[in-house]
Amino acid sequence: MRNNHLIFSAVVLGLIGGIAIVLGDEIKMGAPARPLPKVTLGTDTLMFGSSVGSFKILGSDETPASGKLSFSFNGSVLVSGLEGTAVTEGGVRKEYENKEFGKTAYFGKGKITITGKVRSIQFFGRDVQGSFKGTGLMRLYGEFDKKLDTGWVMYAGGEREAWGTGGNIKVVPQQIYKQNTDNVKIKDS
């Protein structure tokens, strides 16, 4: 019985090694067979609204999210690593602050405007409507309201799209992928 396990393990390791060799050869071959689509940057403004939903705005270690996020809401906002300002209006109040970890939580009904660089901003609540102008990635999670609507999101000058329920991701500034018009050249052998 033990020998069968050893034989099986040897076969699996041999297959993995063979796959690694094949993948290694593919990597060494160079450029892909088809040219990649060309990317251009569009607007740096994203507008959004939802009856019930949540979102998270974040950047990367190399490029933190930055710009101006302004929205009205009824719910909770967690701001992490802010290098800038957060101004609240209406019934929004600071509920929690941890300077050691750079986290501040707000709760209430009103408006918040966050300007500067930030590691992340998370929101959960109701009746959200606002805009984000800057650089970052926005993940949207929606809930169906009484009209079975999850909300909307749109780039400035564009068309409204559904907020969605499963993690709709929007990159700001907008990235527009254009079909590559370069023809693929095939060599006769």
Word description of this protein:
It is a single chain. The model is unreliable at 5-16 and 18-28 (pLDDT under 50). This protein starts with a helix and ends in an 11-residue tail after the last strand. The chain has 189 residues and is mainly β. It has 1 helix and 11 strands, in the order H-E-E-E-E-E-E-E-E-E-E-E. Strands 2, 3, 4, 5, 6, 7, 8, 9 and 10 form a 9-stranded antiparallel sheet that branches. It has a two-stranded antiparallel sheet with strand order 1-11. A hairpin with a 5-residue loop joins strand 8 (152-155) and strand 9. Helices cover 14% and strands 54% of the residues.
Bulk shape: globular
Structural class call reads mainly beta
- Report the oligomer: single chain
Span between N and C termini? 51 Å
Count the strands?
11
Secondary-structure map:
Elements: H1 2-28, E1 38-41, E2 45-58, E3 65-80, E4 83-90, E5 93-98, E6 103-118, E7 120-142, E8 152-155, E9 161-162, E10 168-172, E11 175-178
Antiparallel strand pairs: 1-11, 2-7, 2-8, 3-6, 3-7, 4-6, 5-6, 7-10, 8-9
Tags for this model:
two-stranded antiparallel sheet, 11 strands, mainly beta, nine-stranded antiparallel β-sheet, 1 helix, 189 residues, 54% strand
Short description:
The protein has 189 residues and is mainly beta.
